[in-house]
């Protein structure tokens, strides 16, 4: 199975700050990487697919990059509604696996 | 409105069974691969199973193979998860989730239900 490792596990940031979350796959997955946002008590929401494609309706402040084994989710200017937990997921092959999550908290 | 609504969760004893349902509306259900994804309390996301548009192909995470069965009824726009021999570690919120492709699967999820909680405890 492909293991996905995110870093950091949590971070504190202020509104307006630039935030970067990284995700590493245990083997190469080309660009088959998705990012999700989850708020407490809610279902996850798709942000990015195929490493850098923005899902419909997602603000352009979110961007993704990377290929192979190393990927990045960037929030260019953190907004109050962006405080949440973020997960990466490999979409290369089943069993589909997620990272452990990165909780973004208010500083 | 396009939505997925799960039901069927509850409290069950270890070794027991439960059947989850996911009702789809506002979409052409039979066009999409469908998935179950779960989340244990305070933990991360875990993909559980998926099923092809016509139900002819199914895959499972190793931890549920032989115990869980995914199925669908396209005439009823519904997805199911039959869970047998339940264990405490199966305690989680179970989400149904859609693969956005109407062709080959993309293996990511663009539409999620709100989830249903399954608690396995004596």
Describe this structure in words.
The complex is a heterodimer of chains A (107) and B (122). Chain A has 107 residues and is an all-beta fold. Chain A has no helices and 11 strands. Chain A has strands spanning 4-7, 10-13, 19-25, 33-38, 45-49, 53-54, 62-67, 70-75, 85-90, 97-98, 102-106. In chain A, strands 2, 4, 5, 6, 9, 10 and 11 form a 7-stranded mixed β-sheet that branches. The N and C termini of chain A lie far apart (36 Å). The relative contact order of chain A is 0.34. With 122 residues, chain B is mainly β. Chain B contains no helices and 11 strands. In chain B, a hairpin with a 5-residue loop joins strand 4 (34-39) and strand 5 (45-51). Chain B starts with a strand and ends with a strand. At the A-B interface, strand 4, strand 5 and strand 10 of A face strand 5 of B.
What is the compact description of this entry?
The complex is a heterodimer of chains A (107) and B (122). Chain A is mainly β and 107 residues long. Chain A is 0% helix and 50% strand.
Q: Which structural class do the helices and strands of chain B define?
A: mainly beta
Uncertain segments of chain B: none
Query: What does the average pLDDT of chain A come to?
Result: 97
Q: What is the rounded Rg of chain B?
A: 14 Å
- Give me the number of helical elements of chain A: 0
Shape of chain B: globular
N-to-C span of chain A: 36 Å
The percent range for helix content of chain B is under 10%
**Cα distance, first to last residue of chain B?**
39 Å
Strand-residue proportion of chain B:
over 45%
Q: How many extended strands of chain A?
A: 11
Name the structural class of chain A.
mainly beta
